[in-house]
Write a structure and sequence with these properties.
By secondary structure, the chain is of the alpha/beta class. It contains twelve helices and twelve strands. Strand 6, helix 4 and strand 7 form a beta-alpha-beta unit.
Length: about 375
């Protein structure tokens, strides 16, 4: 059932055309299939995705998805507030977005830009993307089936169930959940919505960069967490060299680091305190192409640094974020990223689906949950 308070669903638009031509009008990501379906357009490749995931493309998509999103705030601080040397810092508080993360942007972009089959959509996720697709599907009256691995946090599972999607929990990793979702899509005709390696997903994520650039126009560096690379690719595509975009990922899940070493996406370890949001098996083929095109950089942080960033964010601002949402801030707090004194650094904080604060436990007198989000 469609959400009574959301705008009515618009007809699918298709990918925006590049600023200098119409290549995207004949290309898309995996098409709708089924009896009577039109001939599928040509699928985007790493060689041509950069003609679509651009500032022009993001600016075209933004007004389409805007009615369904929150314009999340950015707060300006002094780095001395975090015990660092003085200097300006801007935090983009994307954990205040619908479903608790930036993923809602890509979910709505997919569901509004692509033709929807009667079988609806299917997605695999560590949790946040699944929650976003479930939320968007409910708002637009589209059936949704979500696959998550066993490591998905209880908070994320509860979100997905609360949005009314058909939820399947199983497998040890995101890769196993993705394989199960692909099998379901092949048999059911449901449209797969990829968590990161899809043009529509990156275009939606890029609208965060568009907002942030207006909120922090003097930023010389933008730090954001990296899992599959969808957020970082979208942000990098918007900035397009106007600021240095830096991805931050856990040492236990170095997907972008390993890809840059190899010169292409390769399998990487998938472990970390942020395993349910920043640990796919490898960076996306399309996201990697966008990141290389826009000269994004990458840094690694350890789990202790991520946990400390969670704690500092709470102690300093009384803001709660899950481990994956704190990786970018951890790079700054740990000294892995060292800005010059006068440089303005913008940091994306995204991901609020955690049990780090549990009011039920507090009411029962059991004390707070652990700061890593796992509970006691």
């Amino acid at each position: 059932m469609a959400c009574a308070v959301c705008p009515p669903r618009r007809a699918a638009r298709g990918l925006p055309a590049p600023g200098g031509g119409c290549l995207a009008e004949t290309m898309t990501t995996p098409p709708t299939t089924g009896p009577g379906a039109p001939a599928p357009p040509r699928q985007l490749t790493p060689d041509d995705v950069g003609t679509v995931v651009t500032r022009h493309g993001i600016a075209t998509v933004e007004p389409l998805i805007r009615p369904y999103l929150r314009h999340t705030p950015a707060i300006s601080l002094d780095r001395a507030d975090f015990g660092l040397s003085p200097g300006p810092i801007v935090l983009k508080l994307e954990q205040l977005q619908h479903t608790g993360s930036f993923k809602a942007r890509g979910a709505f972009a997919n569901l509004l830009l692509r033709d929807m089959p009667a079988a609806g959509v299917v997605a695999a996720s560590g949790g946040n993307h699944g929650a976003a697709v479930a939320f968007a599907a409910r708002a637009l009256g589209i059936p949704a089936r979500i696959y998550v691995p066993d490591v998905s946090s209880p908070a994320k599972i509860a979100r997905i169930r609360g949005y009314g999607a058909d939820l399947v929990v199983g497998g040890e990793t995101y890769a196993e959940a993705l394989a199960a979702s692909q099998e379901w899509a092949a048999g059911s005709g449901a449209l797969p919505i990829h968590a990161f390696d899809q043009a529509e997903t990156m275009l939606g994520a890029g609208t965060l960069g568009m907002e942030l650039a207006a909120q922090a126009p003097g930023a010389s560096h933008v730090l954001a967490s990296v899992g599959g690379g969808g957020l970082l690719a979208g942000v990098a595509a918007w900035y397009a060299g106007r600021a240095q975009v830096v991805g931050v990922e856990p040492e236990g899940a170095p997907t972008l680091t390993e890809a840059m070493r190899a010169g292409r996406p390769v399998d990487a370890p998938a472990g970390s305190v942020a395993v349910d949001s920043l640990a796919p098996r490898r960076i996306g083929e399309l996201t990697y192409a966008i990141l290389r095109q826009n000269a994004a950089q990458v840094l690694l942080v350890d789990d202790d640094g991520i946990r400390r960033a969670q704690e500092v964010l709470w102690e300093t601002l009384r803001l709660v974020a899950e481990p994956g949402g704190c990786a970018a801030l951890a790079a700054l707090l740990s000294g892995r990223f060292r800005p010059s004194p006068g440089e303005t650094v913008a940091v994306v904080v995204s991901g609020a689906n955690t049990t780090a604060v549990d009011f039920g436990r507090a009411a029962a007198g059991a004390g707070p949950a652990r700061a890593d989000g796992a509970g006691a």
